[in-house]
Design brief:
There is one protein chain. The protein has about 500 residues and is an alpha+beta fold. It has 16 helices and 23 strands. The strands form 7 sheets. Strands 17-18-16-15-21-22-23 form a 7-stranded mixed β-sheet, sandwiched between helices. A hairpin with a 2-residue loop joins strand 17 (about 275-285) and strand 18. Helix 11 packs across helix 12 (about 365-390) and helix 12 (about 365-390) packs across helix 13. The longest helix is centred in the last third of the chain and has 27 residues, at about 365-390. The N and C termini lie far apart (about 60 Å).
């Protein structure tokens, strides 16, 4: 049997998943890696540890099999710079959650640069994106700027770094979805933007070649032969593909470390007036399909905080049971701004807060507040998307990611948004999207229509909360957010 290997390189772990000829996951390996927090609001990864976990998980799942092609999906915006001669990184990877360049972004906004950056890239001036992280590395690592100007260094998001390592330095490439998240890429014309590079003093020689999501990204001998890498997409775009959201108006929401909702807007970018992002959903045959995106920085990470920070749970699965048992008379609200707030607020400086605490508040109420914060933030995104599209619609949310397995969380999501929430039979939609890109390019998997026809529903969650309660609870959330923002 022929297999497709999907590499799913995430924020807290690396996974390798083997898919068979019928796109069924058959074997999985996963390794967590260390999170580094060198200062408040700073988040880093060791690139060598990322590479080690990817290499080892791939070898584990691929042993004794015939792998026809590799697809890669990755945490987006995370920024790496390495030496072209040795392949050795010159600094730790600066993670998408990192906020160290907030002051730089604020200064650029103050001098009036955000409008032109947003017009070109579809993004807002925020430390979330790669551009200011890259500029920081050039400015703060000894000799980095001179070496960059001499052409000795290479920049990449995680996909680019992995491809460099997998191909032994033969290919310095990325795909359009990852390029679109750097804040250096003009999504309308499909090219790196020289004006933004000049603004941030970034030599364009650092930047990789940009390809379609399904393309020839090179070959690797990691698995013993010459295995082609044929599919690449950033994790949220890969999930959009894996959910078969190929038609305008279709929407998916992924609940991992953060939460990311994408609404397919078709072949033309829609400019947001509600501080959402305009981005590339996927690009096939040199033709981009666009999306509106809302980015929530903390979703599953709030559950990790309950486990690792507070020690009130041992396993994420316990949160649903605790939430179910919480005192219904208490309405504790957690605003999980541990690294600032993303869409639609974009406040890099605010920090997390909890409201409505009483002497009776305990682990059960904390667990419920953490899970409910995901639903409230999704409602923020959904309302903003409908405003940008100029109408409210009977939206159906296709959900995936680790938290989608929680019935309690998905029911609250349906209750607070008033939308139907569809959970597919295959929750590994991010890896499936990467696998489909590679398998389709290899001629093993069906085209878009054939793939979409195979999407299967596991469970639909319908709203059970009455409208008055829904509105009252959402207004309490918005009041809590206003109290948390640095500039309400």
């Amino acid at each position: 049997m022929t297999y497709i290997l999907a590499i799913d390189q995430g924020t807290t772990s690396s996974r390798a998943i083997l898919f068979d000829e019928k796109m069924r996951p058959t074997r999985t390996a996963q390794q967590e890696f260390k999170q580094h927090f060198p200062a408040s609001g700073w988040v880093e990864h060791d690139p060598e540890e990322i590479w080690k976990t990817v290499r080892e998980t791939c070898l584990e799942v691929a042993a004794g099999t015939d792998v026809a092609a590799i697809g890669i999906t990755n945490q987006r915006e995370t920024t790496l710079v390495w030496d072209r001669a040795t392949g050795k990184p010159i600094h730790n990877a600066i993670v998408w959650q990192d906020r160290r360049t907030a002051a730089t972004c604020a200064a650029l906004k103050k001098t009036g640069h955000e409008a032109f950056v947003t017009d070109r890239t579809g993004l807002l001036l925020d430390p979330y994106f790669s551009a200011t992280k890259l500029a920081w590395i050039l400015d703060n690592v000894d000799g980095a700027r001179a070496r960059a100007e001499a052409g000795e260094l290479a920049f990449g998001t995680v996909d680019t770094f992995l491809i460099w390592r997998l191909t032994g330095g033969a290919r310095h490439v990325t795909d359009a979805t990852n390029a679109a998240r750097t804040m250096l890429y003009d999504i309308k014309i499909g090219a790196w933007d020289a004006d933004i590079c000049r603004l941030l003093d970034i030599p364009m020689s650092l930047l990789p070649e940009v390809l379609d999501c399904a393309a020839d990204f090179g070959t690797t001998d990691l698995l013993g032969g010459a295995t082609p890498i044929l599919g690449v997409a950033g994790d949220q775009q890969a999930a959009t593909i894996g959910q078969a959201c190929f038609k305008p108006g279709m929407m998916k929401s992924t609940y991992g470390t953060g939460c990311f909702a994408l609404l397919n807007t078709g072949d033309k970018p829609v400019a947001s007036t509600n501080r959402l992002l305009t981005t590339i959903a996927y690009q096939l045959d040199s033709t981009p399909t666009y999306a509106l995106e809302g980015s929530i920085f903390i979703a599953g990470a709030a559950v990790q905080w309950l486990r690792d920070g507070l020690g009130i749970i041992e396993d994420a699965a316990q949160t649903g049971e605790l939430a179910q048992a919480a005192d219904p008379e208490q309405e504790v609200i957690l605003v999980p701004a541990f690294t600032g707030l993303g869409a639609p607020y974009w406040d890099a400086e605010c920090r997390g807060a909890m409201f409505g605490l009483t002497r009776g508040s305990g682990p059960k109420e904390f667990a419920r507040a953490a899970l409910e914060s995901v639903g409230f933030q999704t409602r923020d995104l959904l309302d903003a998307m409908q405003a940008d599209m100029g109408h409210a619609s009977d939206t159906v949310l296709r959900v995936d990611g680790g938290m989608a397995a929680s019935d309690w969380t998905m029911q609250f999501l349906a209750d607070i948004t008033g939308a139907a929430v569809d959970r597919p039979t295959v929750l590994e939609t991010t890896a499936l999207g990467a696998a489909w890109l590679a398998g389709m390019k290899a001629g093993i998997y069906p085209d878009q229509d054939g793939f979409a026809a195979r999407w299967a529903l596991d469970h639909r969650f319908e709203a059970q909360m009455d409208e008055a309660t829904r509105n009252r609870r959402y207004e309490a959330w918005k009041d809590a957010v206003r109290r948390t923002l640095t500039h309400p």
